[in-house]
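Handout, tutorial session.
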Amino acid sequence: MHKSIESLIRDAEESGRPLPRVVLETEAAETGVAASEIRARITRTLAVMRRAIDEGLKGEARSASGMTGGRARTLWENGPRLLGPRVTETLARAISTLEVNAAMGLIVAAPTAGAAGVLPAVLVSMDDFQHLGDDKLVDAMLVAGGVGGVIAQRASLAGAEGGCQAETGTAAAMGSAAVTWLAGGTHPQIATAVALTLQGMLGLICDPIGGLVEIPCIYRNASAAMQAIAGAEMALAGLDFPVSADEVIDVMGEVGRRMPSAYRETAMGGLAATPSARRLVQIRPSSRPSGFST
């Protein structure tokens, strides 16, 4: 597995291989699993992502706590009001997956359950708007996986270790890289998209109300999907960023290590510690977990 975005891109350029193929063949070599089997597995994963979105948009999934359910459908049916259907539908798709997760439905951790809505939302929305097909989306997921692998090694993917920046921040960076690749972005543009996206997520705390992956998680997934699109749009337009993607990732790791424990998924600080949140948990006994989930 590549330990930096720089080495991942250098491998692609020096070997003359497309970036998805580099990630795929690296995975095959390290795991001993045939490349064809890996692609088949990712295709199945994509299908699970689609089903989760569809299930969430029905508005029927409800969490045991009663805190979440129906918001994705409400947004889908009552928008758009500002920038058109593409934005509204992407937001709704991100929320829908997190609502299915909260209702104990089947989702894909991408890279975690708490950040599972970002990558599906941007990929499915891109396919819906541009009719790309599953093969292209599988390639994009390989690119996203390559970026996620680098972040896992250089920083963290866990909210309990690095705050929400490690979860939804990583998901946004993965989604931005995938979208930039789908749009025909160059290798430098893909790296810039990762840097631009992740810098906007630095310092984001993990403060789930009641310790549950529900509020504010579902909304942060929607925001992160927009952050991913913003990073990709700016990079594709030729905007630069003076700090490399790898350095931004390293900063995220440093921020996570310095972050007080109250802001790392303990539900002891941030929004989880507000009077409103405490009252909400008190009137919903079933929302008091025995442990915390990511």
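The second record follows below. Compare its token runs with those of the first.
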Amino acid sequence: MKREDTKPRPSSWELSPHAVVQYLMGATLSDGTFISPKYVGSRRLIEVAVATLATDRALLLVGVPGTAKTWVAEHLAAAICGNSGLLVQGSAGIGEEALKYTWNYARLLSHGPDRESLVPGPVFHAMEQGLLVRIEELTRLSAEVQDALITVLSEKIMPIPELNNSLQAKNGFNLIATANDRDKGVNDLSGALRRRFNMVYMPLPETIEEEMLIIKNNVEQSAKKAGWDSFPTPTEEIKRIVTIFRELRNGHTLDGQQKLKSPTSTLSTAEAIEVVYSGQMLAFHFGNGQLKAADIAAALSSAIVKDAQHDLPVWKDYLQLVVKDREGWKDLYRACRELI
């Protein structure tokens, strides 16, 4: 892609914004090389994300779990700067040093504070080298750690008071963060920090065909790595899983004829992929290799029932009211009922 990329690109970018979008959405180059799609969904959404980073503004990808926020952030970093490894995994227990820097205390005691005693964190590395850094689950960081990012994003400077100095970010530095809007995390973003991000909301797949395609692509890649690609892709089982997830998420059957209660679980595309993969493990090691209803029943029930008190009655009602009488679904009904 770099060889064929003739579009204008920001300084320090490996690819032009146009080529970055092609890399994520998939394309066929003029020499016939096929670039597989990394994201199935709105092209405009990815264009907005790339344009945000091209303007030197930080990007925040927001959505429920399983909407490919991490996947998109990782591939954006890889396409733009060739390095997706600078990562901070957000949690309530980490401090500022996990983002910025800490100290080699043995050297600090013998030589005092100097640059050689400083141990850079991911954000420090990214600023020093002009790269993209990723922060996962930004809202899980404490308010104090979040506030430490304000100066970094506003002035592109990291103060180092111990050395009476500061680090000025090299051209190309930027930040991609993700946040889960279903589980707010430990601390919501302050208004000051929120203004320093451009937010892009990552939706769940719009159509059942789109969701099936995402799962099918992931399943085929996993099967190839595991040596299961001699077995046919379980398209019918994928369709049943996606149908169940979408109906329970939306609170009604696909035809809109019957209202349903929704469980507390997210029922995301990522969870659907895990259900298929778990079923394939059973089918390959304890069956004939072809995915059947009995293979997916346990993982399906586990994905739906996260809170036994609330979710189990919802799942039982769905099995009784919808699955039991749906044409061609008797095998799935029996397999699921045996487990609950």
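Points raised in discussion: The CA atoms of residues 139 and 189 lie 6 Å apart.
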